[in-house]
Design goal:
The chain is built from 13 helices and 19 strands. It is of the alpha+beta class. It folds into 3 domains: about 180 residues, Jelly Rolls (Sandwich), CATH 2.60.120.260; about 200 residues; about 140 residues, 2-Layer Sandwich (Heat Shock Protein 90), CATH 3.30.565. The strands form 4 sheets. Strands 1, 3, 4, 6, 9, 10 and 12 form a 7-stranded mixed sheet that branches. Strand 9 and strand 10 form a beta hairpin. Helix 5 packs antiparallel against helix 6. The longest helix has about 90 residues. The chain starts with a helix and ends in a 13-residue tail after the last strand.
Length: about 650
């Protein structure tokens, strides 16, 4: 049904336009026979067209005239070789290949001189025309010599004052000048009251000139919009084709209907033809690319025609050559449309009906206009492509807009789906992270328990084992109760310090040393050892993580235990210094010192091992005043590490 409607529009629209711009006058005043009836074979002075009686009211159409090749600016005399003909008259019929100036003579009879202004209306005069009445030139209508004003598609209305008419017989001369490449000739002219003819000329001027310019302005703007869309997405090549077609068509048809060329006439005429031909070729390429993919041979033919069309127009300039070129483009467009239509029907493309409608109208209009160009249609027929081509581009734009809107909706739906999926994944990740955090906390608790057990095993456990061995001596000697008591006290102090370490803040070296002083001072006093506190306020140690502080605490505790058990000292100095990016902690006693340069006891070996773990250097020094100094050197920052050795 839709296709039938489209075909009905194709058939009736040109007919409606033609009837609109060619309203039929009253048959009683029509002076022409059938336009295509054979012309009488009268020549010279005998070729006098009969005088037509014209009433003073209404419009009269003059369809018979005498024609002669003329030169100069005044009408030829009666003795010139006039040839009687009927209008519309094309020069190819009587003067093949002629280009220049042609004079037409009309004879009219008036019963009385009109009181109001009359006019001579020329619906089609190719390329330009000048009107004379009774030997007097009327208003200027443009240049009649090269470059001739290109009024070939502009209906001309020439006002004739009452003073130019005379009762009885009047002679009207119409001088027609040819242009570059066109169907030169003259259509039937009309005379009558200027007010009536001005209305008819205005209607036809709108269809042939003003309306074309308005359509071209809208088409150019639409082409700019589609060009911007293509420039933002170069993969949309069909959009690029149709934008180029819109821009070139609007410029080409504007050049065609512009009366005064801006360049030399040959260049101006070729420019108009090239732009229109290339525009139609871009539409062909669009149709072949519309279904997707690429069909090689039509694109190759279209690309070849882009070169062939200008070459043919330059080498053999004629209206028939241009018509044949348009016919080839027309066939190429038909193949592309067939492919696009099959794709639309096969896949039931939404908005595809718009493309079908615009293309069917385009085919009908192209058929009509090619027929005009080839001389198969009436000489004064109106070209309909200047209106149908913009309409076709609008239909294509509607199709593209539909595709774009559906893509936008699909994108929004995809974004909505992706948002829901991402939210679901986020919930799953949060749950997974929560489970991992719980597992990490459980692992941390387990690791902390393992550390406490290890510390208890290495510290408290070792002391308890020593006390047990002392109580279970196999030598039969009496148990050394003071030694057992000392061992048990070490075990208890180690346990208390382990508990204290659990509450230390990371990097709190002063707190760690204060805890040692608090726990060990009673035992030192009982042993008769004076503890000297030489520890200033220190900032938080950046590398003092809880595991590092525990190792540091163990090393210092072992040092204090050794002083209590083996040194025999009476004075012990605990110092802490931060110098040159290094933290020095020292235990200095005044006891007997070391008797072995490299002690291998279990406690000292454990101290060396822990120092290596935390990257510290553990050294035993002999002060000049005697005794022993245990010095522990640690880097304050990670960048301050100097390759400290843990070897004692």
């Amino acid at each position: 049904m839709a296709v039938l409607c489209c075909l009905w529009l194709v058939v009736t629209w040109p007919v409606a336009v033609y009837a609109h711009v060619h309203p039929q006058p009253d048959a009683s005043v029509h002076a022409s026979a059938h336009p295509h009836a054979p012309a009488p074979a009268a020549h010279g002075a005998a070729a006098l067209s009969p005088a037509v009686r014209v009433p003073v009211s209404g419009v009269s159409v003059l369809g018979e005239a005498c024609v002669v090749v003329g030169a100069g600016g005044r009408p030829p005399d009666v003795e010139a070789p006039w040839l009687h003909t009927r209008l519309p008259h094309e020069w190819e019929q009587t003067h093949p290949g002629y280009r220049g100036t042609m004079w037409y003579r009309f004879r009219v009879r008036l019963d009385q001189v009109p009181t109001d202004t009359w006019a001579v209306y020329l619906p089609r005069a190719v390329m330009n025309a000048q009107v004379w009445v009774n030997g007097v030139a009327m208003a200027y209508t443009g240049s009649m010599v090269e470059p001739v004003t290109r009024n070939w598609y502009v209906p001309l209305l020439v006002n004739v004052p009452s003073s130019a008419w005379q009762p009885g017989e009047n002679t009207i001369y119409v001088r027609v000048a040819s242009g570059y490449v066109s169907r030169h000739g003259l259509a039937p002219i009309e005379i009558g009251p200027a007010a009536l003819l001005a209305e008819r000329q205005g209607q036809r001027r709108w269809v042939q000139a003003d309306g074309v310019l308005v359509a071209n302005i809208g088409l150019f703007a639409l082409g700019i919009v589609m060009a911007i869309v293509w420039l933002r997405d170069r993969e949309q090549l069909p959009t690029g084709y149709i934008s180029a077609a819109a821009l070139m068509w609007s410029l080409g048809t504007t050049v065609m209907v512009t009366p005064n060329p801006l360049t030399p006439l040959v260049l101006w005429e070729n420019l108009a033809f090239f732009l229109v031909a290339w525009s139609l070729l871009m539409i062909c390429l669009y149709y072949h690319r519309y279904p997707g993919g690429r069909v090689v041979w039509p694109e190759r033919v279209a690309q070849l025609m882009i070169v062939v069309a200008p070459a043919a127009a330059l080498l053999a300039p004629s209206a028939r050559t241009m018509g044949l070129i348009f016919a080839v483009i027309y066939v190429l467009a038909l193949s592309g449309f067939a492919r696009a239509a099959a794709h639309i029907v096969r896949h039931r493309i939404k908005d595809g009906l718009w493309l079908l409608l615009g293309t069917v109208l385009m085919i009908g209009a192209a058929t009509h206009d090619v027929a005009i160009q080839l001389g198969w249609a009436a000489f004064d027929a109106v070209y309909v492509l200047p209106f149908i081509a913009p309409l076709n581009v609008c239909c294509i734009f509607i199709t593209l807009a539909g595709d774009y809107s559906r893509s936008r909706r699909a994108l929004r739906e995809l974004n909505r789906t992706l948002t829901a999926r991402v939210a679901q994944r986020e919930r799953e990740l949060r749950d997974s992270f929560a489970r991992l955090a719980a597992m990490e906390r459980a692992q941390a608790v387990s690791a902390e328990r393992s550390r406490i057990l290890k510390d208890m095993h290495d510290g408290v456990g070792a002391h308890l084992s020593s006390a047990l061995r002392q109580l279970q001596s196999s030598t039969g000697e009496p148990v050394d109760l003071p030694l057992v008591t000392q061992t048990l006290r070490d075990s208890l102090d180690q346990l208390k310090l382990s508990i204290d370490a659990m509450h230390l803040q990371p990097g709190d070296v002063v707190g760690l040393l204060a805890s040692l002083r608090f726990r060990m001072t009673p035992r030192l006093k009982a042993a008769g050892i004076e503890l000297v506190w030489d520890v200033p306020e220190l900032a938080a140690w950046p590398l003092g993580t809880p595991p590092v502080l525990r190792h540091l605490q163990y090393i210092l505790f072992e040092g204090l235990s050794n002083v209590l058990q083996h040194s025999g000292a009476t004075r012990l100095v605990l110092t802490a210094r931060l110098e040159g990016g290094l933290l020095d902690l020292s235990l200095i006693d005044n006891g007997s010192g070391l008797t072995d340069e490299h002690p291998r006891g279990q406690g000292l070996q454990s101290m060396v091992g822990r120092a290596a773990v935390i990257g510290a250097r553990l050294t035993f020094l002999r002060p000049a005043q005697g005794g022993l100094e245990l010095r522990l050197t640690l880097p304050w920052q990670a960048s301050d590490w100097r390759g400290l050795s843990s070897a004692a």
